[in-house]
Amino acid sequence: MPNRFILRGGTVVSADSDPAPLDILVEAGKIAALLAPGTPVAADVSERRIDGLHAFPGLIEAHMHFGFGEKITEYETETAHAAIGGFTTVLGYFLNNEAYGDVYRREQDYARPRAHIDYGFHFSTASELHVKELASYVKDYGVTSFKYFMNFKGEEGRYLGLDGTDDGYFYALLQQAAGIGGVTVVCHTENIEIVNRLRNAQLNIGLDNLQQWEAIKPPITEAEAAIKAMLFAETVGATIYIPHMSSKMGLDEVRRWRGRYDKVFVETCPHYLTHTSDMDLGGMGKANPPFRSRAEQDALWEGLFDGTIDVVASDHCPRKRVTKDKSLWLASQGFPGTATILPVLLHEGFHQRGLSLQRICQLVASNPARIFGIDDRKGHLAVGMDADITLVDLNQERTVRHEDLLSYSDYSIYDSWTFKGWPVETILRGKTVMQAGKLTGQPGEGRYLFRRNDGTVDLQSA
Fold first, then answer.
1. What is the DSSP string of 266-302?
2. Is 408 domain-assigned?
């Protein structure tokens, strides 16, 4: 695209108001103006018609995992996958025991020449060193979000090379985060003591279906840990984010707690909105938290409608099918999912249930931008913001084929599903990187998003 252009004839989707017909003027990779349809512009501005399409702010994937694909090339494959799905930004998690200085430099060496879209990092905290160095991670690397696994006590985290921690560590981490300010602690809420007891009992019976897997991790294991996380956070004044919420019980506890403390944010994932534990998927359907019943799924949709859930993100893990095509005990947990987030929300939400486009915009654009400190440049179509634009055809019907989604993974849990509503173009800072389901951008066009906890932009992201 030229340096100055205007998109005419589309409908702009906003987190703050109903969709409206507006023309979008872009200059030097930024939104220069939102204009009434047909407003005259300078003669040197290139004009393009996008009649019938809806223009969303560039989508933001708040929950992606790096480290499960080909280490050197996964930034290329997984950011291409995200661009296919209409995403212009991904935030990826790392799980390490070591200090993050070397991790950051190593990952940047992989990412900078390969990323198709903009990217940022979450660091997982698992050692005393991480708490000690937390402020330096914010200052030196622009990372303002840190994950803590409440289930990684004892030996639970050994398969990832993580030491076991305890509530004292968790409390100290929240204290440190609150003291720094502008930091979000992502809390994987799971009571592992209950899970272990139920899992040990199941060992004698066998694990044959996803309902048994769900029974090992019932809603109480999620909800009880959420209560503890919210109480700790309130006591020290920390901001927390609960990922992959899967249960009505957990959501109800969040609703109650927010009446007294509002620094609590909640995410769910598309697979909890579409899949249930009575499906005959075997190891392909193994996730943590597990798929639950239809009633639990309905409660999550209610949470999307009433605002209890702030973000929809995929928990994307680009594993190969061979790691899933096993018995339930041996199958890996998680699966790819970024590229199908928007089709799920449009088909199952907008078309089937009447979820508004404004609400969808909040869930995959404005809210993740605000929660994770990039709303000074991402998440809204507004003057001065990055010209990240996702053009959507609400009526396009496509059948999912994992081959079209470009992930390192060789399957999708939505293979052969047909969705109505797809992104048809992804524009990153004024440049088209995906069009008509085909990648058009080049590796290395994505930029690292250095986040400051005071909300200002750093030159490393400019």
1. EEE-HHHHH-BTTS--GGGG--SSPPB-HHHHHHHHH
2. no
